[in-house]
Amino acid sequence: MASPPVPISSLIVEDWFHGLYTAGIFLTLWVIFTNSAFTMERKAGLTAIVLSMYICSTMHCSLQWYYYSKAIDDNELPGGPGLLFSLTHLAPWLEATGDTFFCLNILIADILFIWRCWVVWQRRWVVVILPIIMSTCGIGMAARFIVAQVTLETSGDAFTSIKRRNDFLAFSTAYFVLSIATSLFTTTFLALRIVMVQRAAVKATGHRKNPFSAAVEIPVESAALYSLTLLIFVILNVTKNVNAFYAQNIHAQMTGIAPMLIILRVAAGHSRDDTAWSTRPDPSIHTQPTPNNRGITSRIRFRPKDATSIGVDSVGLGTYTTDAERSRVAVQISSGEANTSDSDIKSVKETA
Predict the structure, then answer these.
(1) Among 219, 230, 264, 311, which one is most buried in terms of CB atoms within 10 A?
(2) Domain edge (last residue) among 231, 263, 284
(3) Which regions span the lipid bilayer (predicted)?
(4) How many domains does the chain have?
(5) What are 297's strand-pairing partners?
């Protein structure tokens, strides 16, 4: 049995992923706005990135729904153009708009992954210069193949149609090759850096991270799901496989889901700090501060000025992490303006 030229069920698959994406968007926005450590500028920036990608994915899903529903509605009455004709002959504006949002979402995702790669490699431009060049070239290829596709749909001349078809195939292939090269490059270098940092953390602290957390960190932080769906789509599209429709619709949503998961990890505090991506086996880098290594807090509180003596209560003046600082504080208190008793100084030294 031959496969249908356009599988309508691919729309249902995209709607399912879009529903999953929508639920993730609400969770991500809630985590961002409830994070007290973020400034308003950072909250606004992360929200803008998340919503812009969600809008692009939603537009692609909505246009697909309009495309399929219109093809069915046009053939409900007798004398219609035929369902197969309607499914294989799209309006130029519809095809151009859908491709534009699809490519725009890929561009935003690539920029975010390149930025993330730059951060985890401790802002080394030499690591991201190649994907930046490939992504920039991809913008030009995307513009050319969208123009060629629209011209192909509107041209009535046979020679022009053949030329535009060849241009469309050449530029679209070049664009997707650059896209998959950019995503695989950033994914590989992100995963490599994560593994290196995990090993350095084991050497520094002497114990391994939670295996489940370590296993989740690699595919999420490296955007492996994004690269996987894009690779499958490019392979199916080049081989003219009808299942490319499924892969394209899934990837249209995954371009937003994968960056959203990275932002969600950062906002929820499960991602490493920007300063914790060093591969040096230094415990001070890979160990989170604990009450045992934050220093000793003095419990001294001075009474009001009209009091006749200095007492020792249970409120801290500060944190002193060295013996020299402890001694200096004790000397300053013992030589202050107020007269302290030997028992008070002894209590201060014992507290310090």
Answers:
(1) 230
(2) 284
(3) 20-38, 45-68, 93-113, 125-148, 168-192, 212-238, 250-268
(4) 2
(5) 319
pLDDT single digits (tens) 304-334: 445 444 443 333 334 444 444 445 545 454 5
Lowest mean pLDDT, pick from 230-234, 250-254, 309-313: 309-313
CA atoms in the 13 A half-sphere facing the CB of 41? 0
Spatial separation of the C-alpha atoms in residues 240 and 166, rounded to whole Å: 15
**Are 52 and 98 part of one and the same domain?**
yes
**Of 264, 334, 227, 237, the residue nearest 47 (C-alpha):** 264
Residue 123 predicted with pLDDT over 50 = yes
What's residue 274's pLDDT?
Answer: 59
Which 8-state DSSP code applies to residue 274? Answer: G
Question: Of 124, 128, 243, 240, which Cα lies nearest the Cα of 188?
Answer: 128
pLDDT for 328 equals: 52
Is the Cβ–Cβ distance between 316 and 352 less than 8 Å?
no
Burial 39-48 (b: 16+ CB within 10 A, else e): eeeebeebee
pLDDT in tens, 179-219: 889 988 988 888 888 888 777 777 776 666 655 565 666 67
Domain that holds residue 245: 9-284
Do residues 121 and 97 both lie within one domain?
A: yes
pTM: 0.69
- Residues 270 and 343 placed together within one structural domain of the fold: no
First to last CA, the chain: 84
| Residue 320 β-bridge partners | 296
Q: How far is CA 3 from CA 6, 8, 242, 243, in A?
A: 8, 11, 7, 9
Q: Which residues contact 205 (CB under 8 A, 6 or more apart)?
A: 283, 286, 287
Tell whether 60 and 177 lie within a shared domain: yes
Q: What is the CA radius of gyration of the chain?
A: 30
Q: Are 159 and 242 within one domain? A: yes
Residues 261, 298: one domain?
Answer: no
What is the percent of the chain where pLDDT is above 90? Answer: 18
CA distances from 131 to 188, 227, 346 (A): 12, 14, 64
Amino acid letter at 122? Q
- Do 64 and 126 belong together in one domain? yes
